[in-house]
Amino acid sequence: MEIVPSERFPNRDPQGLLGFLGYVREVAAKKGRPQLASISLAVKHIDPLAVLESIYEPGELHMYLEQPQSDEAVAGAEAILSASFTGPDRFAQTRDWLAQVWDNTIAIGDLDCAHSGPRAFAAFTFSEERGSDPSSFAPGTVFIPRWQVARRQGVSTAVANVPVTADAPIELLAEKVLAAHTKFSVFDYAAMPADEAAPPAVFKNHDVGGERWFPEAVTQALADIRSGLYRKIVLARAVDLEAERDFNPLETLNALRESYPACFAFSFSGGDGRSLIGATPERLAQAVNGRLITGALAGSAPRGKRAGDDARLGAELLACDKDLREHRHVADAIERRLRALGLDPECAAQPRLLKLPNVQHLLTPIEAVLPQSVSLLDAAGALHPTPAVGGVPREDAVPHIGRIENFDRGLYAGALGWIDYRGEGDFVVAIRSALVEGNRARLYAGVGVVEGSDPAREKAETDLKLRAMLDTLR
Q1: The domain boundary residue, chosen from 126, 159, 191
Q2: Which helix (H) or strand (E) holds 107?
Q3: Positive or negative CA dihedral for 249, 441, 83, 279?
């Protein structure tokens, strides 16, 4: 990517922007192919979710990702470049497509600020092949947004990305960029219309396959484990909701991020009116400052209402043989896959507790030095699906998920996130989520099944995990 020093076009006004876009147009003519012009601007405090609400269009691609506890949020909307991929090499195809994009990108502005410069947003379904439903999500989707806004620890940035051809009308492009940057620089939250309507009351709520299906599925998995087909499998349960009027997925997200600040609140829309939203506790992989950050998350217990009860439940989880075996399967598999990439993972000796408002989990942080020869997308592709959403051994367990489950997972338990031109980025595992379309929503929750699992207990665990989204949608 070419970075143009701000001194070359010092005036942040229409003339300066016209000069920059004119230069990009000259490069496009010289190369014989369109260029991506990216203009970054440091702005006052901005809330990416509020901005997304103001520009949200059901027919446009968008992605939002925020972890309130770390004061980090990013959103991008309206794709100007996009691609879809399928098959076992979809992460590698995405990496190669982005390399071509960055080779034809020219950037200017406040590029020393956090989250500055162009970035790509990507979503990968659980399965590497498209589902049988014609409306299913593509196995891999990547896009460059026209507008992106972000905040990290109090520093906010707004970025405009503009495709420029050899005959582009740069005066019109400059006008649109200036209008957007003016809006984001002094974003007027008071001008946003207030929605006084109460959330829709859900009046239909049923398990896909009926109440008895999930315990019977767990029983089937236990029989498979005893016969030696695999050691662990993760089975998911889907619940369909129908309301008397349309859900507002972005309002639901606001409630989720307020209630679960340690989780990653997220939203992805493929531009067809459907949005997958949720608050996931599981990060797939993050690349920052030359390091890869991931972790093993498996094993769950409820929270106690009193301090003593909560401490007892946590201590029991840390000592539970079944949960510790399930957790060790996940941690060992992650370390093994990272070593196969040539990385040297550093893994905590013992798991610790990750306490969320309604549930607590076993968590083992894992990190590794990330050399330039290994992309974040390489690591994400190697790790997905993790044993926390697939099974162990992955090659043996994952093919049986489609045989036992009675619905297409789609983006549930898939990977969502972003990556920038520097190679830094963040991907999460899309669990604790709901697929929302109009007045309908499908909620998902899963559990790991190993020897010693109890069907009734596993269903109760999914009840616990579904409660957050159910309560919020209501």
Answers
A1: 191
A2: strand 105-109
A3: positive
Residue-wise pLDDT for 248-278, tens only, equals 888 889 999 999 999 999 999 988 889 999 9
Which residues have C-beta within 8 Å of that of residue 361, sequence separation ≥ 6? Answer: 281, 297, 298, 299, 300, 353, 354
Cα–Cα distance measured from residue 221 to residue 449, given in angstroms and rounded to the nearest whole number: 7
DSSP 8-state code for residue 429: E
DSSP state of 439: T
Q: Which domain holds residue 252?
A: 205-473
pLDDT greater than 90 at residue 442: yes
Number of domains comprising the chain: 2
Instruction: Assess whether 232 carries a catalytic annotation.
Output: yes
DSSP 246: -
Burial bucket for residue 135 (CB in 10 Å: 0-12, 13-18, 19+): exposed
> Are residue 20 and residue 61 in the same domain, yes or no?
yes
Tokens of residue 40, six digits: 């970054």
- Known catalytic residue at 305: no
Q: How far apart are CA 79 and CA 77, in angstroms?
A: 6
- Does 277 lie in the same domain as 245? yes
Same domain, 162 and 246: no
173 and 270 share a domain? no
Angle at 161 between CA 155 and CA 164, to 5 degrees: 155
Choosing from 72, 282, 335, 458, the catalytic residue is 282
Are 395 and 314 within one domain?
yes
Q: Which of 66, 232, 335, 459 is catalytic?
A: 232
Are 222 and 76 in a shared domain?
Answer: no
Q: What is the DSSP letter of 298?
A: E
286 vs 132, higher pLDDT? 286
Which pLDDT tens digit goes with each residue over 289-329?
999 999 999 888 999 989 999 999 999 999 999 889 888 88
**Across-strand partners of 171?**
none
Task: Give the other-Cβ count within 10 Å of 430's Cβ.
Answer: 31
* Domain containing residue 325: CATH number: 3.60.120.10
Question: Cα–Cα distance between 7 and 167 in angstroms, integer?
Answer: 26
Beta pairing, strands 359-369 & 291-302: antiparallel
Instruction: Give a yes or no: residue 316 inside a domain.
Output: yes
Give the domain-ending residue among 191, 217, 246. 191
Report residue 397 as tokens: 């367990």
Tens digit of each residue's pLDDT (9 = 90 or more) over 172-225: 999 888 887 777 766 666 655 555 566 677 777 899 999 999 999 999 999 999
